[in-house]
Design brief:
224 residues; mainly alpha; 2 domains; 2% strand; flat
């Protein structure tokens, strides 16, 4: 490996290198940091935020952004909790459909009305916040079904289910981004939308699909 190639790798992976150095330092500073319970706790937190990050990354690669992420999660959770009395399965399906519907609306406004995603999702954020407050009557609600705790508390060979779900979603995301035409289209659109159209890429359809798929990550994250 040449010196130039080594420096190039170091430059591209500088965030990862900083994280590794930080982990080594904290591990040497406190024996509790590398304990099993703390490691599981960190993985749980990383998994929850990581699922959101995957959905957001799909949009960021195209030069888009979604400011309604948190409020969409809140709406999905509200729908699931309000419908839990009709069966957890039905409640989850309705919550998933709600999250997808928000993504469809965002996608249609951005692609068909030719508006920028930042103000569109900002407006959606405010609308979802008001909708959640209306549905909950401004009161705090919570799940009362024991099944709600299944994904967050249960483990498989000492590995929490939420961590396994995150790893599966991450691997699928990497496969799609690196090995499929859809993934290459996302990179192309992020580089230059006009040039992508000239090369025959359906820019609007790709952006719409990305918006819808990102919402799937947000609702999966809430269910975890």
């Amino acid at each position: 490996m040449t010196k130039r190639k080594f420096l190039n790798i170091m430059n591209k992976q500088r965030i990862l290198i900083v994280i590794i150095i930080l982990v080594i330092y904290l591990g040497l500073s406190s024996e509790n940091f590398v304990s099993y319970s703390n490691t599981v706790n960190i993985l749980m937190q990383i998994s929850i935020n990581g699922i959101i990050a995957i959905g957001m990354t799909i949009l960021l690669l195209q030069g888009e952004i979604d400011l309604s992420v948190g409020y969409n999660m809140g709406l999905v959770g509200t729908v699931i909790i309000l419908l839990q009395g009709y069966g957890l399965g039905l409640a989850i399906v309705c919550g998933m459909l709600t999250g997808i519907l928000v993504g469809v609306i965002n996608g249609l406004i951005v692609t068909k009305l030719k508006l920028e995603s930042l103000p569109v999702t900002l407006g959606m954020m405010i609308a979802l916040n008001g909708l959640v407050l209306w549905l909950t009557k401004t009161k705090t609600i919570r799940g009362t079904v024991d099944s709600f705790l299944f994904l967050s508390n249960e483990t498989f060979y000492s590995v929490p289910y939420v961590v396994m779900i995150f790893i599966i979603i991450l691997l699928i995301f990497i496969l799609i981004i690196r090995r499929t035409p859809f993934g290459r289209n996302i990179y192309a659109i992020g580089g230059n939308k006009i040039a992508s159209r000239f090369f025959g890429i359906n820019v609007d359809r790709t952006r719409f699909t990305s918006s819808k798929n990102s919402k799937r990550c947000y609702k999966y994250n809430y269910q975890c």
